[in-house]
Amino acid sequence: QQKVQQSPESLIVPEGGMASLNCTSSDRNVDYFWWYRQHSGKSPKMLMSIFSNGEKEEGRFTVHLNKASLHTSLHIRDSQPSDSALYLCAASRNTEGADRLTFGKGTQLIIQP
Amino acid sequence: EAAVTQSPRNKVAVTGGKVTLSCNQTNNHNNMYWYRQDTGHGLRLIHYSYGAGSTEKGDIPDGYKASRPSQENFSLILELATPSQTSVYFCASGDPGGALEQYFGPGTRLTVL
Q1: How far is it, in rounded angstroms, from Cα A47 to Cα B40?
Q2: Are B9 and B106 in contact (CB under 8 A)?
Q3: How far is B2 from chain A (nearest CA, A)?
Q4: Close Cβ partners of A55 (under 8 Å, ≥ 6 residues apart)
Q5: Below-70 pLDDT ranges, chain B
Q6: DSSP state at residue A77
Q7: CA of A2: which chain B residue's CA is closest?
């Protein structure tokens, strides 16, 4: 069973629109959430991380975290064609020796010009 | 930015053959990781290491071995390659601690015929 669930599997958003991606962990021991972005044919690169309840904004990207429900969401406003990519959510724990990321299957985002 | 390199970038192997994938990082990170990425499965952890001489099993270690001869190098070994091991393999590095980012290499596309 996948411990990190992402939805939707794919998403088409018009250029300039808002994209909203969701991620939930079934492991109640996770402490940190990560969003990685992977353009086609490239390697994943960390986009944003969030460790505390609430919201974090970096430019056009906003991440929310609800630790009680182990749910995080990524919102991209004013979406650009260059935002088209696979978005991977990952979770990790704050325990000694637990330096592992568990990834979800990803959301394929397509921004239509 | 962290530098992680992988070799080869592409590899075609025959069933039953031995395959070695190599990874090098120049950032003096203690931890290194091997993942495979398949459509519909996201990134799955195969093996990881906390430092030279150490290897740990990830979530899908069967059919794979790992070797960490030095801080900089981490290899993934397929002793008897099978077609089910056809995939894209990513190496990553990072410092210890669940709150620290992982940096990915460019990936190796392996095809086992």
Answers
A1: 21
A2: yes
A3: 11
A4: A62, A63, A64, A65
A5: 1-2, 97-98
A6: S
A7: B41
